[in-house]
Amino acid sequence: MTIKTSDEPFLTRLKESEQDKFMQKAVAKAQDAQWDKRTAARNELGHWEQWRDLGEQIRQHVIRYLPDYLEEFADNIEKRGGHVFFRQNRQRGQ
C-alpha cells in the first residue's frame, strides 16, 4: 500500500474527507481496535493504576536525579570510545 499525496488545498481535502464514508469507517474501526487492545493490556497487566503510579514515581525520580544519570551515561559512552558534548543552556528570559 502506498501513501497518496495531493496538491489540493487543505480545506478542499478536508471537505472531501468529510464525505469519505469508507475512510470514516476505517478510522472508527482502528479506534475501536485500539481501545480493545488497551483494555486487554490493562486486564492482562492487572492493577494498572498501581503500575501507572509506579511509572510516575520513576519519572519523578529520574527528573530529580537527571544530572547524575546524564553523567553516568556520558561516562559509559566515553569508556566505549565515544564522545558526549553537553550544551550550556541560557536561562529563560535571557
How would you concisely characterize the structure shown here?
The protein has 94 residues and is mainly α. It is built from four helices and no strands.
Structure description:
This protein is an all-alpha fold. The chain has a domain at 44-80. 70% of the residues lie in helices and 0% in strands. The chain has 4 helices and no strands. The protein has helices at 10-19, 21-45, 48-64, 66-79. The radius of gyration is 24 Å and the shape is extended. The mean pLDDT is 91.
Characteristics:
mainly alpha, 94 residues
Topology:
Layout: H1 10-19, H2 21-45, H3 48-64, H4 66-79
Residue-averaged pLDDT, rounded? 91
Radius of gyration: 24 Å
How many beta-strand runs? 0
Largest sheet: none
Return residue spans where pLDDT drops below 50 for at least 5 consecutive residues: none
Helical content, roughly?
A: over 70%
Name the beta content range.
Answer: under 5%
**CA-to-CA gap between the ends?**
49 Å
The global form is: extended
| Helix/strand class | mainly alpha
Element order: H for helix, E for strand: HHHH
What's the number of helices? 4
